[in-house]
Every structure is written in structure tokens, then in C-alpha cells.
Amino acid sequence: MLTQKEFITMSLDLNLFFLRIMKEHSFFLEIGFTPRDKKMAERAGDFRQKFEQLLLDATSLANGNVSENLLGSNQATTQYTLEAERLTNFYTGIPFNFSLTRREEALQPAGIGSPGARLEDAVENLDRRAYQLTGELAAFKEQLLESVRSCKMFTVNYPLLIEHILREARHFMNMLVMLVRREPTDSPEELINQEAFWNRQMAEHAKFIAGLLDPSEEALIETARMFGREFDALTAEADRASRQAMNITRITEDSIQGTERLRDFKAAGTQGLLECKIQSIIIPLLGDHVLREANHYLCLMGVCGG
Ligand SMILES: [Fe+2]
Ligand SMILES: [Fe+2]
User: Fold this and answer.
1) What is the Å distance from ligand 1's center to 245 Cα?
2) Minimum-distance ligand to the CA of 137?
């Protein structure tokens, strides 16, 4: 059972990370449609704006109440986020709330002392609104995936990417349910599930990067494919461990080591995109997005900002 303070801090940490992720998923979907499916792009744009509003609310609540770990781990924003948003805005014309990003960068951590029942109510309300909106976005992703898989619709987003971001939405919703029930999301059993989940996501990030690089970027493609294979193996190990309730210390160590190397690869890639040194069809914000997901995963495994 979580204490009031744990509930507040864990909820704010989770929302600051995932609401930005959901806002960006909406954006990736929005720019992927053909002119025929303008209505779908508009719906995705609505989601983007609604998630941005929720992220604004979360940021207001988070100032002075968020954990040191969240702030030190570069999972809400990174050193590249603002630049990636600027360049992505330049390429697409879609507006980004830069001042929100700056506000997140300036957040202050929780101090000592009790936060109070009013804040607890406001945070629980945020959790519930996040759950509701993410549920609606998940339904939209599901419908889109079905249309794409059955060849009724074309988008420039890979079907596996749509499935991937649907999985992240459901994962966020599961975490919110646990928090609202005041259940800890960082128990040893939960960590095994998180590793099985995030190792798969890391494998897929590597595969998306390999597929979106220009075919002339052979060395980078080869490195990305190598990460894909490495994380497929780590996913299989974590899956086995979660089924058999095995000790996962060694898998965790391997996952940390692999994720740190993949994180560095993503960071270098994002920087290369921002400096126009890499040829690809990767929208710059996607580079920063998958970098933040690696940072989030590392923090779950106990390496916050390492
Ligand atoms: Fe994502
Ligand atoms: Fe992802």
C-alpha cells in the first residue's frame, strides 16, 4: 500500500513521462496519413492538443512535488527535446508548446513534509483523466491498426509502430490503475514484467531506426540491426523469467548494459539528425522520443541519470 506522498510522487513522475509520450504518439500518427484521410489526421491532432493540455496540468502539479529521480533521469525531457521540437515544427508546420518544455526543464523536486489531501485529490483526478484520454487514444490506435493490417488504409507509419505505441498506451493505463489502487509499481514481480515489456520496446526501436535510415547509411543500419537482435534475445530471457518466477539479477544486469549502449546510440543519432549529419526519414522528435523511453527504462532498473 502506497503512502500519500509515494502515491503523489509516483503518479506525477509517471504522468510527466507518459503524457508527453502520448502527445507525441498522437503527433506521429497525425503526420502519417494520406490526403484522403484528412479526418483521421484531424482526430490525431485533437489527441495531441488534449494530451498537451493534460501535460500542462501535470507540470503545474509537479512543481515542488516530483521526484529527484525523475528530474535527474532525462525521461520527461532531454538536452535535445527543445531543439528536436523546433526542427520538427520547422519540417511539419505543426505547433509545439516550447514554453511547456522549458517549464518542465525548470521543475523543482519534492521537499520534506507532507503534501496534503488537496494535492492527493488533484493528482488522483489527473490519473483518472490520463486513463480516460489514453483509453480513447488506444481505441483510435486499435482501429487504425485494424484498417492498416486489412489494407483499408495506408499510412507512412509501420504497422508494427502502431502496434508498438498501442502497447505503450495500454502499459501506461495499467500503471495508472495500480497507482489509483495505491499499489506499488516497483515491486520485484513488477520489475520482471517491466523488463519483458521494455526489452521488446527497445528491440522494436532498433528495428524502426534500421528501417527508417536512408539505405546509404549502411554502418548505422548494421548497428541498429545488431541492437534489434540483442534485445530480441533479452526479451526472450525476460519473458521466460516472468513465466517461471526466476531470479532476474543477471537479466537485469544485461538489460542495463544493453540499454545504456542503445541509449548512447539513440542520443548520437538524435544529435546527428539535429545537425543534419544523418540521412533518413526519421522525424527528429522520434529520435528524442525513443531516447527518453530508454532513459525511463534505465531509471526503472535503478539507473536514473547514470
Ligand atoms: Fe513511444
Ligand atoms: Fe517506444
Assistant:
1) 28
2) 1
Does pTM surpass 0.85? yes
Residues 83 and 267: their CA atoms lie apart, in Å, by 13
What CATH number is attached to the domain comprising 231? Answer: 1.20.1260.120
User: Which pLDDT score is estimated for 115?
Assistant: 82
- Residues of the chain with confidence (pLDDT) below 50: none
Are residues 195 and 267 located together in one domain of the fold? Answer: yes
Among the bound ligands, the one closest to the CA of 25: 1
Task: Judge if 243 and 283 occupy the same domain.
Answer: yes
3-state secondary structure at position 228? helix
pLDDT for residue 77 = 98
176 and 191 fall within a common domain? no
The C-alpha atoms of residue 276 and residue 280 are separated, in whole angstroms, by: 10
Query: What does the alpha-carbon distance between residue 27 and residue 151 come to, in Å, rounded to a whole number?
Result: 22
Distance 3 CA to ligand 2 centre (A): 30
CA atoms within 13 A on the CB side of 41: 15
Query: 213 in helix, strand or coil?
Result: strand
Residue numbers of the domain that contains 303: 186-306
The structural domain count of the chain equals 2
Kindly state whether residue 94 falls inside one of the protein's structural domains. no
Please check whether residue 5 is in contact with residue 115, taking contact to mean a CB–CB distance below 8 angstroms: yes
Q: What is the pLDDT of residue 306?
A: 67
DSSP letter, residue 65: T
Q: What is the pLDDT of residue 305?
A: 84
pLDDT at 123: 98
